[in-house]
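In full, the data:

***
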Amino acid sequence: MTEDTANVTKQPRRTALRQTTLTETIYTEIRKRLRHGEIGPDDRVLDYEVANEFDCTRMPVRQVLLRLVSEGYLLGTTRGFVVPTLTSGDVREIFEVRRLLEPSAAASTAAILDDRVDDVLKRAYQKAVKAYEKDDGDMMIEANVAFRDAWLDAVQNSRLRTTIRRFADHAQQVRLRTLKDHATQKIVVDGMHAMLEGFLQRDPKQIKLATQNFIASAEQRYFALLDGED
């Protein structure tokens, strides 16, 4: 193989790597905004606006938005991409999946957690306490996401971890409706505290029970608030 031929074969690999990196960067950023409620039910995500923000063509942006549609984060319309509106049935199904998966997954981390993860969990819990004291719904959402991510990142089964994260993210509508309610914030703080104690004691049974109670409380509170608004 000549030197010129070798140079030609390397060029597409570098180009593909840059494209993949750009696409993943856009995906991570848009998904983060969805998780934190920065993109709400009344917002529209337009590919040309995202392309302008990232100083790129619309093609990688379209790839990202269509991926988010396939994963259930967005819905494509003739006027851009929007956050799907969940029915009560959708919410019940999401909570059912979470009840089946999250308690056992959280309990499985008991033997592999370390001081670094403990510190992240503690900081997220302390942030939730501060959010409750300030009645700050946005801060509470951030604390809730950080706490879940901390233990979820320790789950060894990558497919299980991805599935849980996706369904938990789909419950963003629940968080937006409930975590800005002060009484609900207290429930969340108490639930986090029970889970944190289990994690710090490395007690899988306590972790599993606390996670079950946390999810059940979130579901009950969502429908209680929903019924109160009807």
